[in-house]
Design brief:
246 residues; alpha/beta; Rossmann fold; six-stranded mixed β-sheet; 36% helix; 26% strand; binds adenosine-5'-triphosphate; P-loop_NTPase; ATP hydrolysis activity; ATP-binding; ATP binding; AAA+_ATPase
Length: 246
Amino acid sequence: MSDAVRVESLHKTYDDTVTALAGVTAGFPNGTFTAVMGPSGSGKSTLLQCAAGLDRPTGGRVFIGGTEVTAANDTKMTKFRRQRVGFIFQDYNLLPSLTVEQNVVLPLRLAGRKVDRRRCREVLGHLGLGDRLNDRPEKLSGGQRQRVAVARALVTEPAVIFADEPTGALDLRSAQDVLALLRAVVHQYGRTVVMVTHDPMAAAYADSVLFLADGRLAGELRNPTADAVAERLAHLGDAARVGVAA
Ligand SMILES: Nc1ncnc2c1ncn2[C@@H]1O[C@H](COP(=O)(O)OP(=O)(O)OP(=O)(O)O)[C@@H](O)[C@H]1O
């Protein structure tokens, strides 16, 4: 199975003093759902930002769909990201002045691509938003807003969708709906999802969990359960407290 995303020897330091990533090598195979977990400050968001081409690593390489994005200049990287990467954020990042449908087609417009309205409506219909096309985000619940964000991430048919705490602002029921949807995005639409989360219940929806501690990979759990994830995290916390990566 080829990798949708591969990071090699990824390093990131801030201001020459803070080491956020200390050499992470990992592959995210096509058509899989991976959760990234670890104690606060372990480098999860930095890994996501660097892997997504939103930030540049201090060292190492990032490949998306086989193309090395770290070799591209900023303009090329932005263009590539618009074509090949989808994003889902904790706070939805929908534009309040645009309707649901306008929000969803925005990435296609930004990428200068033809807008296939029938397909967009089809995706929104599958996500249970077929009757909300002309509503503005303020009229929607948190769970519905996040479903719009999922639809927006899907329409460009990206090589990978990165989700940063996508359920962090949702109640349990809406969180479960969005997580089930992300699983469907992977297992029915065949997309690849990489999700940062603090929540073992959320991580249990993924096919596997990568653990980070102190900017390094600290293990992987396949077919995770919430209990197994929570236990592994507790031990990572112990290791981080005594300064040893598990
Ligand atoms: N822009 C920045 N400038 C300086 N230091 C930063 C910056 N962004 C992150 N860091 C530092 O890099 C380290 C890793 O941060 P990161 O946000 O990646 O961790 P995280 O695992 O996502 O944490 P959390 O779970 O709390 O969101 C931390 O020590 C953090 O303080």
